[in-house]
């Protein structure tokens, strides 16, 4: 037993495992790409995957984890929808002797910790994603601007961190102002509705920063409904980098996108195997993210999900 994982359940070395994957929702291509990557990797290794979809409800996701515990899975991969509500489920898994690996979303670090409550977090550096989008904006819009921010799911780590990274950078550049910031729940239609309302309240806004592709695509419809031209009158910025948004960058409707890589399968299963082998695992395993704008979107679109 290694000291770094003192209190955590261990994982036996076996030829095959039965592992859970508690997905948060399946309402966008990013989620589907993540699920496909997990299922493909399980199949490749001959591991059994118990898959659940919380359909956008943290309460259902808690129940999904509890049912995986009851089924006696060897390990649980969890994409916690929000930072706080899944913590009791993580602790219940630990109590039942089942290690948990967090995928793509993190939990509140004052309430649960890597190496103590769960093995590790695998995902992107969301603060850095937000910062890179803000930096691109400042470097490419010399006149400054009035920004509408469409936040992801309230209480989720990517929404909290993408806001922090972006807002902190913008705060140091006086010619830019965030005139409104509201959640669109990472969803296309909610993003469209919120963007429509905020564009009416702030007709002088000339930048929309969306925390994901789905809301950015919704924002394009809102800009057009307001009689404005996306990419000209209103500059649109996003995070995720799916094929659909890259085509919109090529078309000139979206200005810049920070990638958030959804292909977790190989790294997730490698990390579980390394844990079983007693290898040292850092508390955070950060995926590198690409960055797209008009200069490279056409070259890279075929690499996107
Ligand atoms: O950006 C979004 C998805 O948690 C990083 O969740 C993920 C985010 C991703 O629904 O599109």
UniProtKB/TrEMBL annotation:
<comment type="similarity">
    <text>Belongs to the bacterial solute-binding protein 2 family.</text>
</comment>
<protein>
    <submittedName>
        <fullName>Substrate-binding domain-containing protein</fullName>
    </submittedName>
</protein>
<keyword id="KW-0732">Signal</keyword>
<dbReference type="InterPro" id="IPR025997">
    <property type="entry name" value="SBP_2_dom"/>
</dbReference>
<dbReference type="InterPro" id="IPR028082">
    <property type="entry name" value="Peripla_BP_I"/>
</dbReference>
<dbReference type="GO" id="GO:0030246">
    <property type="term" value="F:carbohydrate binding"/>
</dbReference>
<dbReference type="Pfam" id="PF13407">
    <property type="entry name" value="Peripla_BP_4"/>
</dbReference>
<dbReference type="GO" id="GO:0030313">
    <property type="term" value="C:cell envelope"/>
</dbReference>
<dbReference type="InterPro" id="IPR006311">
    <property type="entry name" value="TAT_signal"/>
</dbReference>
<feature type="domain" description="Periplasmic binding protein">
    <location>
        <begin position="19"/>
        <end position="279"/>
    </location>
</feature>
